[in-house]
Amino acid sequence: MIKNYFKTAFRQLWRNKFFSLLTMLGLSIGISAALVISLIVYYEFSFDMFLPDKERIYRVVIDANFNGVEGHSVGVPAPLGSAISTELTGVEQTVPVFQFQGDATAYVRVDEDITDKPGEFKKQQQIVFTNNDYFRLLDYNWIAGEHSAAIGQPYTVVLTESRARLYFPTLPPAEAIGRQLTYNDLAVTVSGIVRDLDQPTDFTGKEFIAVATIEASPLKDNFMMAVWDDWMAYSQLYIKLEEGHTAIAIQKQLNTLYRSHNTVSGRDITLTLQPLRDVHFNPRYPNIGGRIAEKSTLYGLMTAAAFLLLLGSINFINLTTAQASQRAKEIGIRKTLGSSKTQLIYQFLGETVLVTVISTLFSILLVPLILRLFAAFVPPGLNAGFMMQPGYLALLALLVLVVGVLSGCYPALILSRYRPTAILRNPVSSRTGQSRQATIRRILTVSQFVVAQFFILATVVVTKQIDYSLQADMGFDKEAVIKFDTPREQEQKRTTLLHTIQSIPGVELVSTGFFAPADQGMSFTNVSYHNGKEELKPTTQIRWGDENYLDVYRIELVAGRNVLPGDSTRELLVNEQFVKTIGFQHPEAALGVSLNWNGQPVPIVGVMKDFHHQSTRAMIGPLLFEKNSGSTFHVRLKPNGDGQSWHEALTQIHKAYRQAYPGEDFNYQFVDDMVAQFYEREQATAGLLGWAMSLSILISCLGLLGLATYTVNVRTKEIGIRKVLGATVTGIVRLLSGDVVKLVLIAIVIASPIAWWAMNNWLENFAYHIDLQWWMFAGAGLAAIIFALLTVSGQAIRAAVANPVDSLRDE
């Protein structure tokens, strides 16, 4: 029986090649998009889910509130881990993770001969200080070494297999044990080698130095191992709770312990236990060297995938029901020969599942190609091989089953209802119910274009907002300015480099400082002003630079003067928003006012015009500028008239940098590119929307093409009679295209308010954004109508120009 079902299904597909191709093409597009999107989503939600007892693992994070200013940090005071181990109950494992500070150059001596020159590996990343609980927490597989106490002693290190191969390429793992590594000037001994984790994880360490090394070496002060009222982001802490203990109870104990040690600022700080499942997704606590996946984006991707799958399924339903009358005799004969309604339903569902399986197999072949095309949107570490995960294979099987059943359920019910007596007595009567089916097909077609119209509008709005943000007046000139960092030591070398770069012909002006006016990082400072009644403490960002900083970025002064050269006096510049925040209506009134900054009165000598110190998502807030010659260079290049001057200037700057700092890498960045990075998320969204729009239009037009072809075939004699009676080609094309335009117009009316609501909500994420304009909706609607007309016009013209004699010959 099953063999007969598949044989019949193959014959039916082969007999209707054109419609079968359109159906499978529409499904393949939808399934391909769904496969890639589901692969990305499944990958993101798989992070650290392989860890045993993952529901009992937490990261300790900080939530602070200083004078109404909220802050969040993944860093915790360095001595907290040791205190938890000795003073807290209910904690099974305490795992400190200290990131190696600065750039690490690893020196390796493979040959024990002292005269052998050690190998040098610069800028090694993913080096951490931790303890033995780290390996139990992550359930590492050991290749060599005694895992029970591999890094229990100072000056020991455990390597992953990949790093062991890098450092000791000629040695088997067991022989690497006992070898010495030197990180900058820190010498350690290899005590173990573990396999690299092959599952998605935010634990990115590759080299693990015993945390006891910090206490036993001069690093103790650098890591603030005895400081409770300060912390740095490189000091993270994970704990695993004992069974039967709740996070709420442990968190309460944790804060009591912390405040007993930090009596200075502990009351303003709350230690929070962040569940492991939240680590990969919470933007308030970004991972060092890692990345945050936004759940809202993933949910949006899943919604887009569902819509594209829905469009493919609608195509199948439309095309199958449109062909129903052509299978009427087949159904009548089957029922006459004894087929039951249930058997017919199985037959037609089997055909649908077969089409779905074929489409899915084709889609799977496309996944590697699509991943390459979507490389900008694919998470690092994800490849097509991840599809072999058991959980994903189960998801794939479920996808085939759900799409096949949903797509074929309605057509199977429709086709199985035909009455054999009516069909075989008069084939014309087999059209009974066609009006109702046509109505359903129109509804489904409208639904397709509602989705397509929404994607068109969303793409237009997101693209316009990105263009607005990139072209917006930031309040400073970001064009033709580069910035780069230098080593913080050796101030004399920086001074020499500054003069050398300023003398380069292609350089207009140079400044040293720290952050650019708008930078990826944020730096706040505590400053106050007493107005005679109360002390005001605005939340204030700070920028540093020398006296040329404002000129490099062409930041305007609306009152007062710039900071003066020299280090003899301290003076501040503030922005207009700062002036308003402390109660002055006019910038000039703030000149000469002293602010309490770091316990000292410092005068305001100038007021800067407001500029964006973050992206346009955020409002411009209070900001002050202090003269300080920092380690970051800001270089304004002269106009690039011949197209080569910038290249020549950058080459000379690079040469000057290498002379000042031999052995150091020169990494520069154009400030306008850095500002553009503020909107990477929106640009990725725009790219994905563009793809979703293109695919939804393509799928909708494929369905429309199939319906247009069917309509022309059904109305062939009607068109012939109309032509005999004097109808023109234009009139017939208008007749056949009119219904399509009506359906698209209905879709526009439905989609426009939905898109307006959704896009308004999205734009609220930006403090400065575009306004939705009528022409966006009109343009998107016109585009949908043009796509629809282009799709059906070929079939309509072919029918209109056909010789009516051919269509009426058999009458």
Automatic annotation (TrEMBL):
InterPro entries: ABC3_permease_C (IPR003838), MacB_PCD (IPR025857), Macrolide_Exporter_MacB (IPR050250). The chain crosses the membrane at residues 21-43, 298-319, 344-371, 391-415, 443-462, 688-712, 740-759, 774-792. It is found in: Cell membrane. It comes from Parapedobacter luteus. Its main location: membrane. It is a multi-pass membrane protein. This is ABC-type antimicrobial peptide transport system, permease component. It comes from the Bacteria. It holds the Pfam family MacB_PCD. Keywords: Cell membrane, Membrane, Transmembrane, Transmembrane helix. GO terms for cellular component: plasma membrane. Residues 303-418, 693-800 form the ABC3 transporter permease C-terminal domain. Residues 20-256, 500-652 form the MacB-like periplasmic core domain. GO terms for molecular function: transmembrane transporter activity.
